[in-house]
Amino acid sequence: MCPSGTTTLRSEIHTVGSDLRPAFNVLDADHDGKISGDDLRKFYAGFSSGGADEEVIKTMMSVADLNKDGFVEYHEFERVLGTQKRASSSSGGVMEDVFRIMDKDGDGKLSHDDLKSYMEWAGFSAGDEDIKAMIRLGGGEEKDGVSYNGLLKILAIDFLV
């Protein structure tokens, strides 16, 4: 990233052990290093037959786009989710929405099929053994899948629980 005078902010957040890059990359659909409203629409459209709720998209962008340039850069994403993580014992908000979208059958667990479907949609190459390893990493069992907290472990953002 280019210097933007936010090194103090980044340093403060990194001291709490934050590593939200995997979650950021999930939402940055076009992989341009910033999250736009279009990225969020594409993300939601990939998992919801009804598409994205424009009010939800606008609210998410409004909350996270701290410099109001129309994009959420990584340091903004990290600050919003890092603050949210410190304020409660779960990351909540955006990541809960991500989980609900990935959980196609709504059973509160991400099954092998849920994870495989998401990985394919996101353009990541993941075989069955990779998906099984993700489930194990998240503390789940192959037949049951992983919980929300398991997804956080997979994404390496479960830094305070």
TrEMBL record:
GO molecular-function terms, A-Z: calcium ion binding
UniProt KW keywords: Calcium, Repeat
Domain EF-hand positions: 15-50, 52-87, 90-125
Classification via InterPro entries: Centrin_CML-like, EF-hand-dom_pair, EF_Hand_1_Ca_BS, EF_hand_dom
Protein name listed in UniProt: EF-hand domain-containing protein
Naturally occurring in which organism (per UniProt): Fagus sylvatica (Beechnut)
